[in-house]
Amino acid sequence: MISNPRTFKFNIMIYFLELWNAKPEWLALNATERQNYMEQLGPHIQNLMEKGVKILTWSNNNPSTSKKAAYDYFAVWTFPDQATADGFQELVQAAGWYNYFEQVNLMGEEETANGLIGQLIQL
Q1: Which of 42, 76, 111, 113 would be a feasible disulfide site paired with 56, CB 3.0-4.6 Å?
Q2: In this model, does residue 10 exceed pLDDT 60?
Q3: Residue span of the structural domain in which 112 resides
C-alpha cells in the first residue's frame, strides 16, 4: 500500500477523460470550416473555466505507448462537482462534437491509491 494515504476529502474533484479519433465527416471539412467550428467552442470552454473547470491536457496518444488505446487524441479535465461535469457532457453533445469525432469517455471522483486498491481487493 501507499504510505500517508489521504483520509479526508473536503473537495470532491471529478476527473473526465476523453479519447477520440477524427471521423470522415471531420476530415471532409476544409481547414476554414474546422477552424470556424473550433472557434465557436471557445466561449463555452471559457465559461467552463470560470466555473472552476481545468484542462489538464489535450494531447496526441503517443504511438510508443504500451498497450496503446485505439484513439489518436485524448483530453483530461477536472470538474469541481458532478453538476458541472454533467453540463459539460450536455454541451459536447449539443455542439455536435460526436458528429465529427468517434469518442469514448471516462469519469470518476478523485480517489486515493489506497482507496482504489481497497476496492480492487474487495472485488
Answers
A1: 76
A2: no
A3: 14-121
